[in-house]
Each structure stands twice: as structure tokens, then as C-alpha cells.
Design brief:
One of its GO terms (cellular component) is cytoplasm. This is Leucine-rich repeat-containing protein 41. By secondary structure, the protein is of the alpha/beta class. Among the domains are: 101 residues, no CATH class; 170 residues, Ribonuclease Inhibitor (Leucine-rich repeat, LRR (right-handed beta-alpha superhelix), Alpha-Beta Horseshoe). The chain has 25 helices and 17 strands. The protein has a 15-stranded parallel β-sheet with strand order 1-2-3-6-7-8-9-10-11-12-13-14-15-16-17. The longest helix is centred in the N-terminal third of the chain and has 31 residues.
């Protein structure tokens, strides 16, 4: 019954010798220590020989801590991948395959072939045969296209067909076991089918010159022959034309069987020899089998060309009919950069923002074996070129296991249409699991509301949709050919629960937002950021739509919107009996108001028993307004407010101390019965009088949880002046 948390906390201080980031949010010091310990040893940050408790040749730091690692970050030259795939760390890799859930890549640099090969082995073990469900990539200003495509494709579960992967110059053991199990199952199925066919054929003893007793028996033999030929030999799907040719040929050309006892395989061979279509198919099957055998023989040893990773990454076949082209038609690097699927229904159809370069170098997804794939993909600050976007689009088109997609500051531009094309193709899969989509960038290439409608019309099953842009692209109106306007797309009733829109200083038109809100009956959170209000009635219209269409809305947030002239609407929101959290962030609430408006806000909140959280950062409260807000918790208040955010409000230490004293008085009057639990004070002027600020914070922490920072207000003011 004793907690070991203090012991692990002390171990952190003794071994790490650093202050852990966000220590107040750490719930399990054991997990935090072992996870950080593993990462520091792996990347050479921690020298185990410096601690006498760890300097033991019988002790393997990586092996000991690996079962406790659920999150791992690989950086720079991917040295960690090389170390983990080394022969002496095979057991460590097996442990990670069972424990690791999140794999992160940060600040990657271009790497040589041997390092990339180690990464291949690592991803294959941790994703395809492991438990990794999330891959996140951060801050890669100039990404290596081949390396990026490699990570994306293996995250999607695609890899070269056959036993092309090797582990220490031998095929992957887990792949061998799976192939062996599948081969045994197939052999058993063939044996059972052959036994059934032989039994049924033995019942049809009548051949030419041996008439059967009834016409029904003849029909049974014919049916059995047809089923045997089509099911045993042509088990793969055929086109209607081929099926028609097969039927016509089988009706015109007789097939004599001189020996029934030779078994069904001999019969099938005879059937093939006397049917032109089947005979042609058999030749093609033999050719494919021969190729596969040669491939398997080659894959048993090291790679044919150790200096060419691209052929290792991208399989290029020679059958143009299957959407593949000859590898000599382009260089391997072009294969990497032009990797798209040319199968029918390919999601990326080619337009100004998504140009295909013909068929040269195309790698079809059909040529890759499909392994287990991740459910969460996050790309932060990684520029995506047109080629990379086409790759991602084609991966997305069949990535049915994907549940969360985050694309943040990737410089998409017109390539957003290519991504949308892949998402639309994905939406046509009945087993699609996508539930969260977040897209953010500097420039928008299409209006925010149009993008929202486009995504939501294709994915009504989404639970969270976030669209965020900083600036409006001046060329936004120039839409690439082949991309229809989504503003009129019909939105079916959706499962959307959270909607976040950051407008690049666009006007908020309720008429455009209304269809989205009307289709989202289950909406619980709505956030509107950086929108302008074209007229004074616009916010009132929005509130009416929300009241009518979204009865379950619990959280509403406005950020960087001028609400100084919308005092009536602000008070209506604070009166709402359904909303539990309201945010007015940098909305200039008190820019042109008088003291009466603040009093009305306080009285409204005091009467609202459903409101739990009120966030007012960046509204120039100052000392006197902060002190007035303490009356929300007075003796005559029925408020249930638990959280109050007054960050960035020019609050000084003396004002905070006065607020604290007034709050203490109200608590005493109420006999200590108060629900207030959290106060946020980020970026206020508390550094102007450190002693007073410390006293105020000390007294406040006896009442509630206080979150603040050591903010230098003088430097921040200087920065503000410098950019004016």
C-alpha cells in the first residue's frame, strides 16, 4: 500500500540531474523515469558508467527499461534506429514491439543507405509486427523525399511483396511464420477441395460410350466439372468478358477424360488444354509463379545491389497491364518522388495543384504487400511537395485503419486538392475508421468554410474537424481544373462533436456556417478564431442558429474577434443554461465599455449554475476588474464556476493580492463551501513586485490550484514596441 513515487522522483534527481519538463503534470514517476532513461541511454545523452549502480557489465540499461517504453523519439541521423536493430539488441526490439505505442521523428537529416535500411527493419518490426499505433514527425525543413515516403508508406502498412525484408541477411522470421501458416492453410483447403472434387468425379463414371441413367446426373457432372475448373484453377476474380468467353468455349469444345481414377488435377489439366482461354491463363499463371520463385530465391540472401536503396524501397514490375512500368523508364529517385497508384479509381486525378508526370516511374500499391498499419499520423512543420502529396494521397485512399490525421504547416497550397482527393477515395471504403482531421497552414488556398463542407460531406462520421489558416492566399480564387466547388456540397447528418475553424481574417457569414451546424446535431464544442463580423447582426444570427440546431453544445470559444460592440450577445451567451465552458480570448470585451457592463457580466454569471469554466485571457481586465470578478463567488451567488482564466490581462501583484483577500472573505462568509478550483495567470505583470506576488500566490494556493509562469513583462513590452 506504499507509493514508490518519491523513490522514482529521487532517482530522477540522482541519475538525470535535470529538472523534468511539466513536472506538475507527471502522474507516474516510475514510467517517466524509465522512459526517459531508455531514450537518454539510446541517444548517448546519459553515460551509465558515471553511476556506480548502473556500471555493471551484467546489466543492460536498454533491455531493463524497454518493457516500460510506450513513447520513443528518433532524431537527427537516426542513430537510435541503428542501435536498436543491432544484433545484440534483438531482445530489446522484441520488448519495444510489445510496449511501444507512439513513435516520433524530430529534426531528421538526410542519412545514408545503411541507416535507412536499419530504419526499414525498425519500422517493420514496430509497426507491421508490433504495437505502434501513432507516428508523428516534427520540424523537417528540407525533408529527404525518399526517407519521408519510406516512413509514410510503411506507416500505412505497405511494403514490398514477398519476403524482400531481411533481418541479418535472412528473411524476417515473423513473415516466414505467417507465410508458413498461410501456406499450410492453403494446402489444407486445396486438399479438402481436391478430396471433394475426386469424390464427386468418381460419382460420374459415365464418359463417352457409357450413358448415365438420368439427365440429372449428367447435369451434376457438368456442374462439377465447371466448378472444379473455375474454382480450382481460376480462383481469382475475372472480368465479365473472360467469363463469357470461358462459358462459350466450355459449351462448344468437349473434354474427354480417359481415366477417372487419375484424380481431379489431371482433369483440370485436360480442361485447360482443351479451352483456349483457360490454356492462355495457365501460361500466364506459370509465368507469374516462375517470377515469384526467382524473387524468393533472390530474397534469401543479401540485396542484389547494396548501393541502391531505391530499388529496395520501390518495387517496379514490368507488366504495364497492372499499372506498372519498366524500371528503366526513369531513375530510382524519380520512382521515389513520383510514387502514385495507377490502378483504376486512383484518387489523384491530376490538375494544376496535383500534376502527374505521365506513367514513368509509377509504383502501384498492388505491388506492395499489406501489413498492419498505424491509426494516427501527424505531420508538423514538414513541407510537402507535389510529389509527396500525391504519394500521401494514394496512401490515404486505402488507409482504412487511420483514425486521426493531423497536417500542420506543411505548405500544401494547391496540393490541398490532392489530399482531398485521397480522402474522398478513402471515404468510399465501408470499413473506413477516420474520426479526427486537423489541417492547419499559413496560407489558405480555398475558403475555410468550403474546406469544412468538403471534408464533412465526405466524412459525416467524423467526431473532430479542425481547419486553421493564418493568412488568405491572394490566388485563392484560381481553382485548379478538375476540382469542383465544395461550397454547395450537400452535407448529410453527421456525428461531429468538435468543430474548430480559424479564419484568415475572413468575414464570418452565418449563412455559410448554418448548413454545417444544422447537419451536426451532436456538436458539443465549437471554436471560432480570427473571424471578422461583417455586420452588427451577424453574431446574433449565429446564436439563434446554435440555439436551434445544436442543443447539446457545451463548449463555445471565440478568439481574436472584436466583440466590443456586441455586449448584448455576450450577456446572452453567459445566460445560456446548456453551455458549461465559454471562452472570450483576445476579444476586446472592455475596449469601449463602462463599469455597468462588467457588473452585468458578474451578475449574469452569479445566476448561472451550469457554467463551469469562464476564460477571459487578453481582454485588458487590469487590477480593478479582476478584483470585481471576485464577487462571482459572493454569499448570494448560485454560480458553479470551477475555472477562471485571466491570463494576459495586465494584472499587477497588488491587484492580485487584493483579489485574493476579497476571495478569502467570500469563502469565509460561505463557510468554506466553494467550487472554485483552478485559476490561470499566465503572462501577467507579476514580476514588478516579486514579494507581493509571492504572498498573493501563497494565499491563493490555499484556496485553489494556481497556474502561472515566470514571465518577463519588460522584455515582452519591448518586443511589442519593436514590432509596432
Amino acid at each position: 500500500g506504499l507509493s514508490t513515487q518519491p523513490i522514482w522522483r529521487k532517482l530522477w534527481d540522482d541519475v538525470m540531474k535535470t529538472r523534468p519538463p511539466n513536472s506538475e503534470n507527471i502522474t507516474c514517476w516510475r514510467k517517466k523515469f524509465l522512459e526517459t532513461f531508455f531514450s537518454n541511454v539510446l541517444h548517448g545523452v546519459l553515460d551509465v558508467s558515471s553511476d556506480w549502480r548502473l556500471n555493471d557489465h551484467h546489466f543492460s540499461p536498454l533491455l531493463h527499461s524497454s518493457p516500460h517504453v510506450s513513447q520513443l523519439t528518433l532524431c537527427n541521423m537516426l542513430q537510435g534506429a541503428v542501435e536498436l536493430t543491432a544484433a545484440h539488441n534483438q531482445k530489446v526490439l522484441e520488448n519495444l514491439a510489445g510496449s511501444l505505442r507512439i513513435l516520433k521523428f524530430q529534426h531528421l537529416l538526410s542519412s545514408d543507405q545503411s541507416i535507412r535500411r536499419s530504419l526499414v527493419l525498425l519500422l517493420h518490426r514496430l509497426i507491421h509486427h508490433g504495437s505502434v499505433s501513432q507516428v508523428s514527425m516534427y520540424s523537417w525543413p528540407v525533408p529527404d523525399t525518399v526517407l519521408l515516403v519510406l516512413i509514410l508508406s510503411m506507416s500505412a502498412g505497405f511494403w514490398r511483396s514477398g519476403n524482400a525484408l531481411t533481418y541479418h541477411s535472412s528473411p524476417c522470421g515473423l513473415c516466414r511464420e505467417e507465410d508458413k501458416a498461410q501456406s499450410q492453410e492453403s494446402a489444407q483447403e486445396r486438399a479438402e477441395r481436391g478430396h471433394c472434387d475426386e469424390r464427386e468425379w468418381s460419382d460420374g463414371e459415365t464418359q463417352k460410350g457409357f450413358p448415365r441413367a438420368s439427365e440429372e446426373a449428367d447435369a451434376e457432372v457438368n456442374r462439377c466439372r465447371a466448378d472444379t475448373c473455375l474454382n480450382s484453377v481460376l480462383s481469382r476474380p475475372r472480368s465479365p468478358l473472360q467469363n463469357q468467353a470461358c462459358e462459350e468455349t466450355s459449351s462448344k469444345v468437349p473434354c474427354d477424360h480417359t481415366s477417372v481414377q487419375e484424380g481431379s488435377s489431371h482433369c483440370i489439366s485436360d480442361q485447360l488444354s482443351c479451352h483456349p482461354v483457360l490454356r492462355k491463363t495457365r501460361r500466364r499463371l506459370k509465368s507469374v509463379v516462375g517470377k515469384k520463385r526467382r524473387c524468393l530465391r533472390r530474397s534469401r540472401g543479401p540485396y542484389a545491389d547494396p548501393e541502391d536503396l531505391y530499388d529496395f524501397v520501390f518495387t517496379v514490375a514490368r507488366e504495364d497491364n497492372s499499372g506498372l512500368v519498366d524500371k528503366n523508364s526513369t531513375t530510382e529517385r524519380e520512382n521515389a518522388e513520383n510514387w502514385t497508384s495507377s490502378s483504376p479509381g486512383s484518387p489523384c486525378t491530376g490538375h494544376a495543384g496535383c500534376k502527374k508526370r505521365g506513367s514513368a516511374g509509377i509504383f502501384s500499391l498492388k505491388a506492395a504487400h499489406r501489413f498492419r498499419s498505424i491509426s494516427t499520423l501527424e505531420l508538423f512543420s514538414i513541407p510537402l511537395t507535389g510529389d509527396t502529396c500525391r504519394t500521401l494521397s494514394n496512401l490515404l485512399s486505402s488507409w482504412v485503419s487511420l483514425e486521426n490525421l493531423v497536417l500542420s504547416y506543411n505548405g500544401l497550397g494547391a496540393n490541398i486538392f490532392c489530399i482531398l482527393s485521397g480522402l474522398r477515395a478513402l471515404s468510399r471504403h465501408s470499413d473506413c475508421h477516420l474520426r479526427v482531421v486537423r489541417v492547419s497552414d499559413v496560407f489558405s488556398h480555398m475558403p475555410c468554410m468550403e474546406l469544412v463542407r468538403c471534408i464533412l460531406s465526405a466524412f459525416p462520421q467524423l467526431h473532430t474537424l479542425s481547419v486553421s489558416f493564418d493568412l488568405k492566399n491572394q490566388l485563392e480564387g484560381n481553382r485548379p481544373e478538375g476540382n469542383p466547388n465544395c461550397s454547395d456540397a450537400e452535407i448529410p447528418e453527421s456525428c461531429l462533436e468538435q468543430l474548430e475553424i480559424r479564419f484568415p481574417r475572413e468575414p464570418l457569414h452565418t449563412t455559410f456556417l448554418q448548413p454545417v451546424l444544422k447537419a451536426s446535431k451532436s456538436l458539443q464544442q465549437l471554436s471560432l478564431d480570427s473571424a471578422t463580423l461583417p455586420c452588427s447582426q451577424e453574431l446574433g444570427l449565429l446564436l439563434e442558429v446554435l440555439k436551434e440546431c445544436n442543443p447539446h453544445l457545451k463548449k463555445l470559444s471565440f478568439h481574436d474577434m472584436n466583440l466590443a460592440e456586441h455586449q448584448k450577445e455576450v450577456l446572452l451567451l453567459l445566460q445560456d443554461p446548456i453551455l458549461q465552458e465559454i471562452t472570450f480570448s483576445f476579444c476586446r470585451l472592455f475596449e469601449s465599455s463602462n463599469t455597468e457592463f462588467l457588473s452585468e457580466i458578474i451578475n449574469t454569471v452569479k445566476r448561472n449554475s451550469s457554467l463551469k469554466s469562464l476564460k477571459l485571457p487578453g481582454n485588458r481586465l487590469g487590477n480593478h476588474r479582476l478584483v470585481a470578478l471576485a464577487d462571482i463567488f459572493s454569499e448570494d451567488s448560485s454560480s458553479s464556476l470551477c475555472q477562471l482564466d485571466v491570463s494576459s490581462n495586465c494584472i499587477k501583484p497588488d491587484g492580485l493580492l487584493e483579489f485574493t483577500k476579497k476571495l478569502e472573505g467570500h469563502i469565509q462568509q460561505r463557510g468554506g463551501q466553494i467550487q472554485f478550483t483552478h485559476l490561470r495567470l499566465f503572462q501577467n505583470w507579476l514580476d514588478q513586485d516579486a514579494e507581493t506576488a509571492q504572498e498573493a500566490l501563497r494565499r491563493l494556493k490555499a484556496v485553489c490550484s494556481v497556474v502561472n509562469d515566470s514571465w518577463d513583462s519588460s522584455q515582452a513590452f519591448a518586443d511589442y514596441i519593436s514590432v509596432m
